[in-house]
Amino acid sequence: MAQTDTKTRILDAAEQLFARDGYHSTSMRSLTELAQVNLAAVNYHFGSKEGLIKAVFARRLNPLNRIRQEQIEAVLQQAEAEGARPQAKELLRAFIAPILEFRKTESGAQNFLTLIGRSLSEPDETVRSYFIQQVLPIFTLLFRSLQHALPQLPEQLLFSRIQFAMGAMSHMMVNSPQHQKTLPGFPKPLPTEQMADELLEFISAGLEAPC
């Protein structure tokens, strides 16, 4: 088995099991069985289970965050060229659209998004802290950019509204329409693309609401 293939198998298996069972409940034995490797291979490539979860996040988030940064900076540059403030909706689009594309095009995407949902909702801080380390720079850029777009909002209020927006976004990412069950007596979920548009409308209206 080629070295790169071994590493990819381990990452894919870890992503699947961490999403399904949680980081702490996933045994190294089950992981090595799924990846068809031995424990020495995991230690060679990642050093430890902690090194592995960090690598799982980095594999997906590093390219996603580069795209997000480029798109946010493009919105800021366009606004500066026009002598105007950036639009909050366009900044949010730059942050959200790349992960929507990721969900459609990447194999294993739903496993990763489920893992993100677990990292944000479970009480244990271990996985959450690794995730926050990965997203803090791009979140800071988004926050500072939205401060520029919405200067009328006090900093504390803006931060709270962004947290609400991230909660709605996380819910949509983890609970995609194809994975939702229709409740008796209620309509089916919106198609994915329409739901994405509605999410953007919803959270931008919430951010821009008068204080």
TrEMBL record:
InterPro entries linked to this entry: DNA-bd_HTH_TetR-type_CS (IPR023772), Homeodomain-like_sf (IPR009057), HTH-type_TetR-like_transc_reg (IPR050109), HTH_TetR (IPR001647), PsrA_TetR_C (IPR041586), Tet_transcr_reg_TetR-rel_C_sf (IPR036271)
Domain HTH tetR-type: 4-64
Organism for this UniProt entry: Malonomonas rubra DSM 5091
Residue ranges for the DNA-binding region feature of this UniProt entry: 27-46
Protein name stated in the entry: Transcriptional regulator, TetR family
GO molecular function term, any single one: transcription cis-regulatory region binding
Keywords, ordered alphabetically: DNA-binding
